Amino acid sequence: MTLQFRIADHGDFDGIWAVLMDGKAALGHLGIDQWQGAYPTQQIVRDDIEAGHSYVLEEDGEVVATTVIGFTGEPVYDSIEGAWLTTSDSRDPRYAVLHRVAVAQGHGGKGLGRNLLQSAEPVARQHGCESLRIETHPGNIPMLKLIERCGFSRCGIVHISHAEGASTDRVAFEKLL
Ligand SMILES: CC(C)(COP(=O)(O)OP(=O)(O)OC[C@H]1O[C@@H](n2cnc3c(N)ncnc32)[C@H](O)[C@@H]1OP(=O)(O)O)[C@@H](O)C(=O)NCCC(=O)NCCS
């Protein structure tokens, strides 16, 4: 079995989309309102790829996990109930943000999520980032566990802008690089 973490290109769209739809279904089964509307849309995924921010983890040539590593800052992170570990904000971010993390159905629980988050660290370091930030729904126990197991610190609560009428609270984490 060969695992490869790499930047995505437009040919990866179908694989990424299938993994995100698996993630969406998994969240539905958890009974939480995260990703239960239109988000993440196909346009968002295409824009991620176009921007060069989309990454995939391939197992023997098949996309089995995906994440976005964003370097342009996240305006909603400028306000937090709590405190980030680092001080930069979205106008001049020195952090990278992980978004749209998902592992394919049937591939959970075998370390791919951990591989994905750990693989993002050298990419962010190469971009000169001092930290990684990530946030998830307070009811998303698998994701909360994954983030904590990867050594992130729980910093507080942020309010996302793409909740589509669902709850906006997200537990926010940061890890120094
Ligand atoms: C969250 C998700 C990415 C985890 O991926 P994964 O490949 O199953 O995670 P891993 O196998 O790497 O597990 C990493 C750690 O998280 C823990 N974990 C993972 N799933 C868990 C679960 N269902 N319950 C409790 N802990 C869990 C594991 O115990 C592991 O820690 P350990 O190795 O110390 O035991 C995956 O479940 C998923 O795609 N979920 C749907 C989409 C989603 O929620 N995306 C995030 C939106 S913010």
TrEMBL record:
<dbReference type="InterPro" id="IPR016181">
    <property type="entry name" value="Acyl_CoA_acyltransferase"/>
</dbReference>
<keyword id="KW-0808">Transferase</keyword>
<keyword id="KW-0012">Acyltransferase</keyword>
<protein>
    <submittedName>
        <fullName>N-acetyltransferase</fullName>
    </submittedName>
</protein>
<dbReference type="InterPro" id="IPR000182">
    <property type="entry name" value="GNAT_dom"/>
</dbReference>
<dbReference type="InterPro" id="IPR050832">
    <property type="entry name" value="Bact_Acetyltransf"/>
</dbReference>
<feature type="domain" description="N-acetyltransferase">
    <location>
        <begin position="3"/>
        <end position="177"/>
    </location>
</feature>
<dbReference type="Pfam" id="PF00583">
    <property type="entry name" value="Acetyltransf_1"/>
</dbReference>
<dbReference type="GO" id="GO:0016747">
    <property type="term" value="F:acyltransferase activity, transferring groups other than amino-acyl groups"/>
</dbReference>
